[in-house]
Amino acid sequence: MGSTAVAAAILAARQPTAERWLMVWFAEAALACFIGTVALIRKAAATGVPLDAGPSRRFALGFAPPMLAGAALTALLYQHGLIEALPGAWLLLYGTAVVTGGAASVRIVPLMGAGFMALGLLALFSPASWGDWYLGAGFGGLQIVFGFVIARRHGG
């Protein structure tokens, strides 16, 4: 997921309109969801843990509310012409989702969420032109670095 986010950040930064910028990030979100779902199914099959059991269920229950809040705020911010606030809102709420969902996981997962939240706060109070850099650093860089550490230390 991290590498596709880096590519999306580069592509989004080159879009001539806010609508095309948003479409790049929506496409990236759909692709990331697909990649994440496939990875989750593969890990569940490899470990023999059902997707609707224990840790997976608790992760989903903690992860979903902030993600739904992010979807609602995306629509509201877009409707009011506040697209420049989206990178910060997305990073902050995704970080919140990872912290709350990750509370049922290994200790490093909530730490990754805190990193997203920090980037989100910085993005909210930085020039709007830095938004794609923050999104690339979070959804790209943090996912790659933490994904590597989690894979090495915890098997994926």
Give a structural overview.
- It is a single chain.
- The chain has 156 residues and is mainly α.
- It has one domain.
- Helix content is 81%, strand content 0%.
- The chain is built from six helices and no strands.
- Helix 4 (86-102) runs antiparallel to helix 5 and helix 4 (86-102) runs parallel beside helix 6 (131-154).
- The longest helix is centred in the first third of the chain and has 30 residues, at 18-47.
- The mean pLDDT is 91.
Could you spell the SSE succession in H and E letters?
HHHHHH
Structural class: mainly alpha
Q: Please count the beta strands (DSSP E, at least 2 residues each).
A: 0
Number of helices: 6
Mean pLDDT: 91
Helix content: over 70%
Question: Beta fraction of the residues?
Answer: under 5%
The number of domains is 1
Terminal Cα separation, in Å? Answer: 13 Å
| Shape, per Cα inertia axes | globular
Biggest β-sheet strands, sense, barrel: none
- Unreliable stretches (pLDDT < 50, length at least 5) are none
Question: What radius of gyration results from the CA coordinates?
Answer: 15 Å
Name its key features:
156 residues; 6 helices; 0% strand
Topology:
Elements: H1 2-13, H2 18-47, H3 54-79, H4 86-102, H5 108-124, H6 131-154
Helix pairs in contact: 1-2, 1-6, 3-4, 4-5, 4-6, 5-6
What is the structure about, briefly put?
Helices cover 81% and strands 0% of the residues.
